[in-house]
Amino acid sequence: LMNGDHVTLGEADAETELDVRFENKSAKKSGTGCVHTAPGHGADDFAIGKRYGLEVYCPVDNGGKFTSEVEHFAGEFIFKANAKIVGFLQESGALLFSENYNHRYPHCWRCKNPVIFRATPQWFISMDDVMSSAENQETGAQKTDVSPLRSGALREIETVNWHPNWGEGRMTNMIKNRPDWCVSRQRSWGVPIPVFYCRACDEAVADSKIVNHVADIFQQETADAWYNREAKDLLPENFKCPKCGGADFTKETDILDVWFDSGSSCVAVLETRGNLQFPADVYLEGGDQFRGWFNSSLMCGLAAHGKSPYKNLITHGWVVDGEGRQMHKSTGNAVSPNDVVNKSGAEVLRLWAAAVDYTEDMRCSDEILSRIVDAYRKFRNTLRYALGNLDRFNPETDSVAQAELLEIDRWALANLNEVVEKVLRAYENYDFQVAYQTLYNFVTVTLSARYFDIIKDRLYIYAPTSFERRSAQTALYEIADKLCRLFAPILVFTSDEAFENLPHQKLQSVHLAEFPAVSEEKNERLLADWERIFSIRDEVLKYLEEARNAKVIGSSLEAKVILTIDADTTFFLLDYFDNLRYVFIVSQVEVHEGEKFAVEIRKADGAKCERCWNYSPRVGESETYPSVCERCVNALSEIEKI
To answer: What is the pTM of this model?
Structure first.
C-alpha cells in the first residue's frame, strides 16, 4: 500500500472505501503498513484525524459504556465487551486471527485501573490567537500589550530571575511546545465556568457582561451560588438569547482547571491585600510546578497585565533519606518534621533547610541532623561567648573609635565586613546555603579557632575599664550585633534571644532591625598581613602539639617558641613582636633571622603566674602581689582603683 492509494474493503454489498494515509514520523520509524486509527480515542489519533479530515467518532459515554449507536453492544462497559466482540467477529467469520499478548497500556496512578481516552467537547484558551481590540475593549480588561500568550510568555520569561538558572530553559521549552490550554474539567464541584446555553437553539452565552454579573454574585455569595441558584437567577433580569431571543437557559456543568484557580492568585491575592502588590517578589515551589502553578500564573498574569506575575522564581527539590532514596512510611526511612522539632527544636530544622542545596533533592537523616545540631551549638555558643564578655559594657560610652582599636580587633571587624557582604548577597540571590556556609566558616575558623582563642587572655586578665579590654569589647559588640541580624532569617528565635540580651539594646526584636550595612572601607593590606601571621601561627601550633605529645610541655603556656625565619619575614614581624606570644598562646617568643624556617619549642623561662598562668622571670617582683607576673600586677592595681 502506498500513501495516497484508494482502497476498497469488504463484500460488494457492504464495501468500505478509504484513502491510505500515514503519519510521517511513524513511517520513518516503523516502515509502511495499515494501523487502526481512532480519532475519538487518543491524542495522536485525534491529531492525525484532524490533519486528514477524519470524523472524530467517539461512541463511548461518560460511564465508559458504548452508546446506542453501537449495534449489538450498546450499554456494555467497553472492557467487559471485548470478549463478546471477539466472539461476534468469530461467529460472523470476520476475524482472521486472535491471540493474547502483553503490551503497555496507561493506567490511573491512583486507583491503578486502565484509562479510557475519549474526545469530548472542552473549553480551551488559545496560545497563539489574539483578542481583537474591539473584543478587548468589550471585556473591560485593562489595556495591555496585546500579543499571543505564547509569544508574550516567551518574552516575559527572559525578564524573570530564575533560581536555579536552568529553570529558564525548562520553562521556555515547555511554553514553546505546549498545546492550547484546556481549562475545563468534568468534576462534580469546583469553580464553575460561567457559560449558559439557550435551551431553544443551544447557543453558548459567554458574554463578558454576563461573566461580570456572575462574578458580582460570587463576590457576595462565593462560587457556591452557581450550584445554589437556578440559571435564571444568575442572569441579569429579562436576559434574552442574543441569537434566537429565548429566555430559558441551562448552566455549564464543567468546572475550571484547578490550576486556573491557583494561577489567578496573582490577581486575587496580590491586588486585594494592602501589603502586597503585583508582581510578586518571588514564587517558590517544586520542579513539578513548571506545567502547573508557574505556568498558570504566568498565563493569568499576561492576561491581566501583559507581564509576568513574579520577579523571581525559585524551584526546590524533594526531601530524600540519607542515601538519596525517596521517603516512605512503609520502608521506614521517613523523617517526620514534628519528630525533629520535638527532639531538637524548630531552629535545627530551619537551619538544616538553610544548609542544604535546595535546588537539588535534599538528604535528611538522623546522622545529617546530628551534624546540624553541632553547627547550631557552635552558632549559639559564639553568641553566648560574645554576650558573656559584654557585661557592664555600654556601646555608647565605652566603645573605642575604629581607628584606635588594637590591630587584631580591626582585623576581626574587617573579616566581619566581608561576611556581611557575602551573606547579604547570598540572601538577595536566595542562596541560603552560601549564607550558611559563610557564617559557619566565620564562626568556627575566624572567631573560634583564631580571634576568640587569642583575645580570651586579654578579656580575662586586663582591668574591666582598660583600653585593651574595651577594644576587644567594642569588636565583640559589633560582631554580636551583626551576627544576630545575619542569623535572623535562619535562626529566628536564637538570634532574637541574643539580640534582646545585647547591652543597652533599644529595639524590642531583631526582626524589627535592619540588616547591617557593608562598609566601603577596604582593608586588603590588613587582611593580607594577618593572613601571613596566621600561616606562621598554624606552623607553630603543629610544633606545639608535637612537643605536647613528647611530654616536653603540658599546656602551651609552659612553652617558649624560638622562631627562625628569613630576613623579610623577620622585618615584617617586628611590628607584631610584643603580641606574638598572645597570637601563639605561649609565654615567650624569640625571633631569629635565618635562611631556613625552623621552630623550636622549649620550656618557658621563669615561674608560673597564678593569675594568668603565663610564665615570667618577673613573677615575685611585686611585694603587694608576689605570686603574679608584671602584667597582672598592673591589672590588679587598676582594679583596686575602680
So the answer is: 0.80
